[in-house]
């Protein structure tokens, strides 16, 4: 089995990694719409189609509103991580080359996995989402400043009340 990923397999692997990142807190599944909401608006249709493709390929399973990995999905994720030179985060499953071949065959036949941009830009999607989340967190006003501002406003209102009398 070759370790080089095609463009379609790379895009599918990026989507699988997005799901894995959302499940990183120890949960076995994540909200499908919550995941899609984190993606930039111009990329959402491709991500939505890709997630639907992963479900049809047997990589992901739906649990109501949530999505999670199947046994074949864990195999595919481990394969993608190894192909990218990462240590597979999926140690609890035994290697099943037949499962990986089944999934790769389905991905190569499915047009939904055709990259919507240059493949190098597609590969950066998880990092771009992480940077976007961290920037949003940094832009929020810290709770301490909110409390201090509220106290100052209340004190100013009380002082103004007594000065007018």
From TrEMBL:
Key word Membrane present: yes
TM stretches of this protein: 143-163
Superkingdom of origin organism: Bacteria
Key words of the record: Membrane, Transmembrane, Transmembrane helix
Protein known as: Uncharacterized protein
The organism's taxonomic lineage, starting at the top: Bacteria, Pseudomonadati, Pseudomonadota, Betaproteobacteria, Burkholderiales
